[in-house]
Design brief:
The protein has 105 residues and is an all-alpha fold. The chain is built from 6 helices and no strands.
């Protein structure tokens, strides 16, 4: 497979993941972090970092809006719930497995 085809396939897979996460607004970021070690915010940071490598600059909020499909504050108001003590304890337990770019290391 040539590089262009691989990149196109990866881009399509990425768009599918982003769309799935937009549709599953019932899934909280803390649960994603606890189970998979990354969340929507991590994905936005990866997106921003990839753009920066190509001299394209986004703020954190701009990158999050691309991933969430709406302004982050709007998404939080509509979908985010307060983390439980159990979720926060699990978050602390799983920190060593969190994505390096997530900002939680």
């Amino acid at each position: 497979m040539d590089d262009r085809t691989r990149t196109e396939i990866e881009a399509t897979a990425f768009r599918g993941l982003v769309e799935h996460l937009r549709q599953r607004s019932d899934v909280q970021n803390i649960d994603l972090m606890n189970l998979a070690g990354f969340c929507r915010n991590c994905l936005a940071k990866w997106y921003r970092a990839a753009a920066a490598e190509r001299d394209v600059e986004f703020s954190d909020l701009e990158a999050r809006e691309i991933i969430y499909g709406m302004p982050f504050d709007e998404w939080k108001a509509q979908h985010q719930t307060k983390a439980t003590a159990e979720q926060m304890a699990r978050f602390e337990e799983t920190k060593p497995q969190h994505a390096r770019i997530s900002g939680h290391r």
